[in-house]
Amino acid sequence: MTKQACSKMFALPFVLVLFACTEPAPRCAIPETRELGTINKLIAETEATLERGYVMQESDRSGVNFCLGGRRSHVGLSFCSDPAGQKKPVAIDQAAEERKLASLNARRQALITRINAKTAACGRQG
After folding, report:
1. 3-state class of 95 per DSSP?
2. Exposed, middle or buried by CB within 10 Å (0-12, 13-18, 19+), for 104?
3. What separation, in Å, do the N-terminal and C-terminal C-alpha atoms of the chain show?
4. Cβ-based neighbour number of residue 114 at 10 Å
5. 116, 118, 119, 125 alpha-carbon torsion, rounded to 10°
6. pLDDT by residue, tens only, the chain of 126 residues
7. Residue ranges of the domains in the chain?
């Protein structure tokens, strides 16, 4: 047996042992655990928005404007670009944000229930 084949043969049981020691939830409910992470992030963002009372929204203004005076002088005409991507605070609809948060929390609970069921089924299978 070659040295390379021998090292692969010894590495395989090590990998299998590592896989067996991992938590069953990520192995048995991979899409659900990914979605749960996304839902948790959205919940945190929505809670922060509710606490703050506004969101930062990008300005939809873009292009080139005429401005009186330049940066170096206050006389004459020059081009001034309107900074694209500038953010400004916008008030939120408190009730809509609270409904969104309730919906996200319900979705989170349903995902947790599904992850627990899949994990239990996975544990029974081996």
Report:
1. helix
2. buried
3. 33
4. 15
5. 150
6. 444 444 444 444 443 444 445 555 456 888 999 999 999 999 999 999 999 999 988 876 555 555 555 556 555 555 555 555 678 999 999 999 999 999 999 999 999 999 999 988 887 765
7. 21-52+93-126, 54-91
Task: Tell me the two tokens of residue 64.
Answer: 């080139």
Three-state secondary structure of 25-88: HHHHCHHHHHHHHHHHHHHHHHHHHHHHCEEEEECCCCCEEEEECCCCCCCCEEEEECCCCCEE
- Bridge partners of 19, per DSSP, are none
Does the pTM surpass 0.90? The reply is no
How many degrees, rounded to 5, is the angle at CA 50 between CA 49 and CA 54?
55
Q: Which own/partner pairs from 103-108 qualify as long-range (CB within 8 Å, at least 24 positions apart)? A: 104/39, 104/42, 104/43, 104/46, 105/43, 107/39, 108/36, 108/39, 108/40, 108/43
CA distance 67 to 3: 75
DSSP letter at 2 equals: -
